Structure formats: structure tokens, C-alpha cells
């Protein structure tokens, strides 16, 4: 088990963003997470990466309890993450954004950082923008950069937060193919996405969140057909429809 | 954190990617820089004493300004308490000479090391604060040191003390320099101090540039753009900021030791002067250009020129400095060098890394 959340809870005032969440992610798995806006998806990522610490419960990475481990050390331990609202280092170029991640990430101080970053740039479709200041990128390229930078830390597990929104059909195909390939290369994927068809063509397991609770977890098509999921996420009430 | 590596070193062209840092202007500039340094090393042979004294001041102020710039312009640490380390450097030097009986020249690096050691507990304390609180605490700490050292009777208490002539007269290298240039010992002492100051500024410029070109420099710029994002790609933000703080303290210690060795006199008020060691420094950095290496150097030269020109006008000196500072902040917030560099695209100390995909053929061959 690469990632395990046990009874993780977090509330901000009256808002419960995580309510006793248990989640196991196996090494090499590709897991999708869906849920309505405000269901606690991004908050779950914040809890996993250490941006916020849980009120209760534990987070373990590769069998090691990292609940009290800092954001920085969790990255070094192998968690990569893209932010839903892109947070590029705006005064650095795209290439330099990746370089920081590769120089300080899991394999920090390694040789071959230039090669690694160059190949990620090409694979994520950012090669043409390599020497552009990240602050001057379009939203679409900022999202690409989020993913590219997360990969440059050479993570064991990468958390992707809504990276397919706004892509054309062709771009979406490319993205899906890329993430599939990453997964085949052994990178564990946890992907939050509203573009469900893209998500379903990659993941082998789907989790649905509602108000900080996990309401479904399992084989994607079974989960999508679950009445509670249809009601909560798709707004389809089977009983009324019948 | 492993030691900073000059990741910028050009990669062998065997790979598919080539990364360049240096620009043609910068390469030409390095030749010019070597010539300038060589001329400055031999300046005591032809420059007048007032000229040397001005240069000493330029070197020391530029060193302080570069360090303050490194903290404020890159690490986001706004300190208004660098006078703490300048003052401690001066007092450490006096203590080593008067109490310890050490040689003045050798005492300079030792004093700076003492300051760097002291900055560890001080840093641990002030790093608990952030933003404006950090600034206030650095100033409070400097005041505390001023008041503490005013209690040290052996070093003159609140009124301060002078270096005994016997100590300064048998400084290492004094006879050699006196003979070499055919000058008396007072002038020879100033030449040695001049070299120490030149060495300091070269060390600080070199250190800053090495740091900014290394992966630490990349991390510093990343931290400035977003601390959470930087941490989430593995940057240990506190550790890097602390290292910068330590480096700045060490350099301030060097500056303090050299400055007060030259004046041969120290008092708590002069050593821990907010105006001399922080306010003027901020002015220098703002005028020259924040977050550049060239800016603080230009600012220091300009400051000393202004000081010399306006020294006869009493309070007008400070008024002109103030108006100039405000004017630059409002009209050209990037400072002299920042604007020049933006306008011409010239960087004498390039840190930007450019990646090039070497060729499609070599790419296919792999």
C-alpha cells in the first residue's frame, strides 16, 4: 500500500472538509476522485500532501506515518502534486520551474536534471514554451506546467487536480494517453477530474466524495451506476425518474 | 540540503538538451571585471589617500547592500537590524585586539566568524516572526546588543574606546607594505585595510553570484513567487532563508570589523547605528535596483559620490537623499540598474537558464 488514510477528519469552523475518510491506494494504481464542488476533493489533496494537518486520523506513505511530516518532506518522500488553481513560479521560466522541482524533489541534487526536465517538457507539450516566463503562460499551459512540475520531483505517487478542463478533444486524448503511460511506467496516479470520460479512460478505481465523506469506492462503472452517486454527483434521482 | 552546486555549468553537448546561462555581454564583462579588480588591487600605488578612503567605504557599503539585497530582494527577509552584526563585528574585533591581544588583521575573519556564530541563536529567535514583525524584531535585537555592549567597561562602556597605538602599529604585513610603497605606517595600515575591504566586496559579489546561479538561487526565486508551491516541490524554505541570514551576518561582521579597524575607534552608538548600517543601505539598494547584483554596487558608488558632494550642506544632505529615494521608488521602482537592464536587456550577472533542444537528428538517434 503506497498511501493509506485512516479516519482522517478536518473541519474549518462549521465546514467539514473531511469526515473520517479511509482510503488505501495500492502501488501502481490509477485512482479517480469525483464529487460536486465543495465535496472536499482538493482538501483531501491538501491533507495528503501536508498543506493542512488533519484534526484526527493518520496519513501513511509507504507504510510510514507522515501525519506530522512537513509539506516539503512529504515531497521528498515521493508525493508530487498539481494545484487546481495553478501556482507557477511566475518569475522563473517554464524550464526553471521544472528545474527547481527536479533539483529539490525526491532525487534532489542528482545529475541529469536538464535531461529529465527537457524530456518532461516535451512529453507535456511545453517544449515550445520552455524559455517563456511562467507568469506569461495561458491558463491551459499553466495547468500543463502544474503537472510537469509535479512530475519533475520524480514522485512515486502523483496527485492531479483538475487538469483536463478546457482542453480540446484532441488535447484531451493526448493527456489521457500521457497519464496512462505514466501509470504504466509505475507512477501511482490519484486524479481529481470533472471531465469524467477522460478520467474513466485512465483509472481502474473511482472514489466519490460528498460533504467530506466517501460515499462510494470501487470499479468505475459500478460506481457511476450507484444510485447514491447518481443522485449526489449527477443530480439524477432514480426513484423520481422511475 | 546538499551543498549548492553550480547546476548552471554548461552540460556536455552529448545530451539532447543544452542549457546556457552566460550571455555574450556577460562573458565580455568578465574580462572587464578582471581588469577592474586588477586595477583596484594596484590602486594604492597611484591613488591618493582620500581616494582610497572613499573606495574603502564604497566596498564596505556595497558589501552590506549586496547582503541586504540578497535577504530582501531574494529571500523576502526585510531586516532593519543588520547594524546588530556590523556592531558585533566591530566589538568582536576590539575585544580580540584589546582583551585578547590578537593581531588586528587576523582578528578580522575571527570577528566575522564570532558574529556568524552569534547570528545562529539570534536567527532562531527572529525567524519565529514573519513579515513586519520580523523587521521589528531584528531592530529590537540590534538595540539590545547596543545596550548590552554599553555595559562592557573594558571596551569603554557607553562612551566607547580607541585601539591602542601599540596594537595597530605592529599589524601583520605593515612593514612590508610600508617599504613596498614607501609610505609611513599610518598610510600602510590604510592600504592593508583597503585590500581587506576589496577582498570582502569581491567575496560578497562572488558569493552572491555563485549562490544565485546555483540551485539555491532558483529556490530563492521560487520561494519569492510562492512559498507553499516551493515547499510542495521539495524546497526547504526555512533552511534556505536561514542560510542566507547567516551569510549576511558573517559579511556584516566582516564589514564591521574592517570599518572599525580603520576608524580605530568604536562606541555603541556608532557601531549599532540604524542610520549608517541599515537606512543608508536600504537607500543604496533601492536606488541601484533591488534583486540585482549590479544595483547595490552602483548604488554604493552613487551614495559615496553624493555624500562627498553634499557633505558641505549639513542637513540638506539627508533631505536630498530622502527626496531622491522617494523619487526613485515612485518613478522608477526597479532602480537605476533595474530600469537600465529592462531597457537594454543587458545582464552582467546572468542567472537565467535557457534550454535548447540540440537537434532533431540526435533526438531520433537515441
From TrEMBL, chain A:
Question: What SUPFAM superfamilies does this protein's entry cite?
Answer: P-loop containing nucleoside triphosphate hydrolases
What InterPro entries does the entry give? Answer: AAA+_ATPase, ABC_AA/LPS_Transport, ABC_transporter-like_ATP-bd, BCA_ABC_TP_C, P-loop_NTPase
Gene Ontology BP annotations: D-alanine transmembrane transport; L-alanine transport; L-isoleucine import across plasma membrane; L-valine import across plasma membrane
Matching Pfam families: ABC_tran (PF00005), BCA_ABC_TP_C (PF12399)
The molecular function terms of the Gene Ontology recorded here are: ATP binding; ATP hydrolysis activity; L-isoleucine transmembrane transporter activity; L-phenylalanine transmembrane transporter activity; L-valine transmembrane transporter activity
Q: Which domain of life is it from?
A: Bacteria
Identify the residues that the record assigns to the ABC transporter domain, covering every copy: 3-236
According to the UniProt entry, where is the signal peptide? none
Keyword list, A-Z? ATP-binding, Nucleotide-binding, Transport
Q: Which GO terms describe its cellular component?
A: plasma membrane
Query: PANTHER family, from UniProt?
Result: AMINO ACID ABC TRANSPORTER ATP-BINDING PROTEIN, CONSERVED COMPONENT OF ABC TRANSPORTER FOR NATURAL AMINO ACIDS-RELATED
Q: What is this protein called?
A: Branched-chain amino acid transport system ATP-binding protein
Q: From what organism does this protein derive?
A: Devosia enhydra
Taxonomic lineage from the root = Bacteria, Pseudomonadati, Pseudomonadota, Alphaproteobacteria, Hyphomicrobiales
TrEMBL record, chain B:
Which segments cross the bilayer?
28-49, 55-77, 84-102, 108-127, 132-152, 191-212, 242-261, 281-306, 313-332
Q: Name one GO molecular function term.
A: branched-chain amino acid transmembrane transporter activity
| Protein's UniProt keywords contain Thylakoid | no
Task: Pull one GO CC term from this UniProt entry.
Answer: plasma membrane
* Localization per Swiss-Prot or TrEMBL: Cell membrane
Mind listing the UniProt keywords for this protein, alphabetically? Cell membrane, Membrane, Transmembrane, Transmembrane helix
Q: Which parts form a coiled-coil structure per UniProt? A: none
Keyword Metal-binding among record annotations: no
Membrane-related topology note: Multi-pass membrane protein
Q: Name one Pfam family in it.
A: BPD_transp_2
Xref: InterPro entries: ABC_transp_permease, LivM-like
The name under which this protein is listed is: Branched-chain amino acid transport system permease protein
Organism listed in the record = Devosia enhydra
Amino acid at each position: 500500500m503506497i498511501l493509506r488514510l485512516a479516519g482522517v477528519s478536518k473541519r474549518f469552523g462549521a465546514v467539514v472538509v473531511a469526515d473520517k475518510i479511509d482510503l488505501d491506494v495500492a502501488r501502481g494504481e490509477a485512482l479517480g476522485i469525483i464529487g460536486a464542488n465543495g465535496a472536499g476533493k482538493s482538501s483531501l489533496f491538501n491533507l495528503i500532501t501536508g498543506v493542512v494537518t488533519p484534526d484526527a486520523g493518520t496519513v501513511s506513505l509507504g507504510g510510514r506515518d507522515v501525519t506530522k511530516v512537513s509539506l516539503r518532506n512529504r515531497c521528498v518522500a515521493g508525493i508530487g502534486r498539481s494545484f487546481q488553481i495553478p501556482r507557477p513560479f511566475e518569475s522563473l521560466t517554464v524550464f526553471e520551474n521544472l528545474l527547481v522541482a527536479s533539483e529539490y524533489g525526491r532525487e534532489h541534487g542528482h545529475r541529469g536534471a536538464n535531461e529529465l526536465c527537457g524530456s518532461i517538457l516535451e512529453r507535456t507539450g511545453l517544449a515550445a514554451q520552455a524559455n517563456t516566463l511562467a507568469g506569461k503562460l495561458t491558463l491551459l499551459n499553466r495547468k500543463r506546467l502544474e503537472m510537469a512540475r509535479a512530475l519533475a520531483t520524480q514522485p512515486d505517487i502523483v496527485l492531479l487536480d483538475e487538469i483536463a478542463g478546457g482542453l480540446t478533444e484532441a488535447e484531451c486524448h493526448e493527456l489521457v494517453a500521457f497519464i496512462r503511460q505514466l501509470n504504466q511506467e509505475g507512477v501511482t496516479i490519484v486524479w481529481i477530474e470533472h471531465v469524467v470520460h477522460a478520467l474513466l479512460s485512465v483509472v481502474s478505481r473511482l472514489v466519490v466524495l460528498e460533504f467530506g465523506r466517501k460515499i462510494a469506492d470501487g470499479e468505475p462503472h459500478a460506481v457511476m451506476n450507484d444510485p447514491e452517486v447518481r443522485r449526489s454527483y449527477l443530480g439524477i434521482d432514480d426513484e423520481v425518474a422511475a | 540540503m546538499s551543498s549548492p552546486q553550480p547546476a548552471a555549468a554548461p552540460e556536455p553537448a552529448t545530451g539532447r538538451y543544452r542549457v546556457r546561462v552566460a550571455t555574450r555581454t556577460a562573458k565580455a564583462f568578465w574580462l572587464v571585471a578582471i581588469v577592474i579588480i586588477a586595477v583596484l588591487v594596484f590602486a594604492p600605488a597611484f591613488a591618493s589617500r582620500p581616494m582610497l578612503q572613499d573606495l574603502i567605504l564604497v566596498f564596505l557599503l556595497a558589501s552590506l547592500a549586496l547582503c541586504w539585497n540578497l535577504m530582501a530582494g531574494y529571500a523576502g527577509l526585510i531586516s532593519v537590524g543588520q547594524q546588530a552584526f556590523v556592531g558585533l563585528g566591530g566589538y568582536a574585533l576590539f575585544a580580540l585586539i584589546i582583551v585578547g591581544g590578537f593581531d588586528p588583521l587576523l582578528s578580522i575573519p575571527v570577528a566575522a566568524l564570532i558574529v556568524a556564530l552569534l547570528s545562529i541563536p539570534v536567527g532562531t529567535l527572529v525567524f519565529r516572526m514573519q513579515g513586519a514583525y520580523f523587521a521589528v524584531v531584528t531592530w529590537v535585537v540590534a538595540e539590545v546588543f547596543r545596550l548590552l555592549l554599553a555595559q562592557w567597561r573594558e571596551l569603554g562602556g557607553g562612551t566607547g574606546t580607541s585601539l591602542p597605538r601599540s596594537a595597530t602599529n605592529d599589524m601583520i604585513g605593515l612593514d612590508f607594505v610600508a617599504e613596498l610603497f614607501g609610505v609611513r605606517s599610518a598610510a600602510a595600515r590604510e592600504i592593508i585595510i583597503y585590500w581587506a575591504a576589496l577582498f570582502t566586496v569581491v567575496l560578497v559579489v562572488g558569493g552572491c553570484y555563485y549562490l544565485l546561479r546555483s540551485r539555491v538561487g532558483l529556490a530563492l526565486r521560487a520561494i519569492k513567487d510562492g512559498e507553499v508551491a516551493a515547499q510542495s516541490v521539495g524546497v526547504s524554505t526555512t533552511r534556505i532563508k536561514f542560510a542566507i541570514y547567516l551569510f549576511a551576518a558573517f559579511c556584516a561582521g566582516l564589514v564591521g570589523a574592517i570599518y572599525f579597524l580603520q576608524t580605530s575607534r568604536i562606541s555603541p552608538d556608532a557601531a549599532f547605528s540604524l542610520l549608517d548600517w541599515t537606512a543608508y543601505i536600504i537607500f543604496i539598494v533601492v536606488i541601484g535596483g533591488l534583486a540585482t547584483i549590479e544595483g547595490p554596487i552602483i548604488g554604493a558608488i552613487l551614495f559615496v559620490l553624493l555624500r562627498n558632494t553634499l557633505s558641505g550642506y549639513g542637513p540638506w544632505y539627508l533631505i536630498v537623499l530622502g527626496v531622491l529615494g522617494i523619487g526613485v521608488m515612485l518613478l522608477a521602482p526597479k532602480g537605476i540598474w533595474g530600469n537600465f537592464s529592462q531597457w537594454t536587456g543587458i545582464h552582467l550577472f546572468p542567472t537565467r537558464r535557457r534550454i535548447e533542444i540540440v537537434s532533431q537528428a540526435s533526438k531520433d538517434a537515441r
